[in-house]
Specification:
Number of strands: 16
Radius of gyration: 20 Å
Order of helices and strands: EEEHHHHHEHEHEHEEEHEEHEEEEEH
Structural class: alpha/beta
Helix content: 25-40%
Bound molecules: 5-S-methyl-1-O-phosphono-5-thio-D-ribulose
CATH superfamily of the largest domain: Translation initiation factor eif-2b, domain 2
Number of domains: 2
Shape: globular
């Protein structure tokens, strides 16, 4: 496989966006064409595209698609209608802050750009393309910085990851899986252990698929096996992604991440979070302020079309949990790996908003 064998799940193609349909992987590989902002909003809601950076990039294109649908030539009317587009996209998923970061960046550019409405639209497309390209570069930097903080022993590491923080969850390359990719390419990886990640199974379906595509050795385990594997000495380090990191380093990521962090701590195994600066929300002091998405209970009681649980039971389906900063060894960003306690003074001034 070539060095560039990972996928790019969000691409601008001719006059529209193409998204890999992540709801159909690993059994079918399909592109969905998105030409209207409402279709982009629905693609984010239904998780055709998912993963914090990937939904940020998609939402940026969504703002442009919405701008393109606005017919007025009056700048004030245009900006008012653009705000409605932004509102719709903001309402798609609440936890990943990259979504809000990208939409805010797009609307800010629209407000700050002088010139005709046609020119504004052109600048909005260029801005979305910049956000897209920057995210790929950022992930590669995260991967390279991650390599420098992985434990020196053993030489070939067994890395556990949770959910999918890979190329599919970003514009390309991945955050946590970017670190894995960089380790693989540097000859420092023995194997990835991928938690299956109930209820949506992003680990079993997407992380495993990405690894298989690229020839990276991967073992899928069910979520309740991580502690056992750690106790048996099968895991050297944990690397996960993030959906929103508070100013104190508390980190929201896919449900189940918190328990992985707790068992890693109990077994003295380093636990890293890999994420771009756009995932850090300096406006939130700690993790208690992070909104946690609750999804449809059918994700818990059924798998595919098969109902697992009796009617009459009740269900609870939070999509994310918050890992306290004290369980996190380091946060790997495009600026290097940083202790959670240092985030604010080392990175806040670098934040592009
Ligand atoms: O519900 P999802 O699939 O969008 O959740 C994705 C995750 O939790 C990822 O770990 C996170 O977004 C990091 S992606 C680089």
């Amino acid at each position: 496989m070539s060095q560039e064998s990972h996928v790019y799940p969000v691409i601008w193609y001719d006059d529209h966006v193409r998204l890999i349909d992540q709801t159909r992987l690993p059994n079918e590989f399909d592109w969905v064409e998105i030409r209207r902002y409402e279709d982009m909003a629905m693609a984010i809601e239904t998780m055709i595209v998912r993963g914090a950076p990937a939904i940020g990039v998609s939402a940026a294109y969504g703002v442009y698609l919405g701008a393109r649908e606005i017919l007025t030539r009056d700048r004030t009317v245009f900006l008012a209608q653009l705000e409605k587009v932004a509102e719709r996209l903001r309402a798609t998923r609440p936890t990943a802050v990259n979504l809000f970061w990208a939409i805010d960046r797009m609307t800010k550019v629209a407000h700050q750009t002088l010139g005709s409405v046609d020119y504004l639209k052109q600048v909005l497309l260029e801005t979305a393309q910049t956000i897209n390209a920057d995210d790929i570069r950022t992930c590669q930097q995260i991967g390279d910085h991650g390599l420098t903080v992985l434990p020196p022993d053993p030489e070939k590491l067994r890395i556990l990851t949770h959910c999918n923080a890979g190329a599919l969850a970003t514009a390309g390359y991945g955050t946590a899986l970017g670190v894995v990719r960089s380790a693989w390419r540097a000859g420092r990886l023995e194997r990835v252990f991928a938690d299956e990640t109930r209820p949506r199974l992003q680990g079993a379906k997407l992380t495993a698929w990405e690894c298989v595509q690229e020839g990276i050795p991967v073992t899928v385990i069910t979520d309740n096996m991580a502690a056992h594997c750690m106790k048996l000495g099968m895991i050297d380090v944990v690397v996960v992604g993030a959906d929103r990191i508070a100013a104190n380093g508390d980190t929201a990521n896919k449900i189940g991440t918190y328990s992985v962090a707790l068992v890693a701590k109990a077994h003295n195994i380093p636990f890293f979070v890999a994420a771009p600066l756009s995932t850090i929300d300096f406006a939130i002091a700690d993790g208690s302020h992070i909104p946690i998405e609750e999804r449809n209970s059918s994700e818990v009681y059924q798998v595919s079309e098969t109902r697992l649980c009796p009617k009459g039971a009740e269900f609870y389906n939070p999509a994310f949990d918050v890992t306290p900063a004290e369980l996190i060894t380091g946060i790997i960003t495009e600026y290097g790996a940083i202790a959670p306690a240092d985030l604010k003074h080392k990175l806040q001034d670098k934040h592009v908003s």
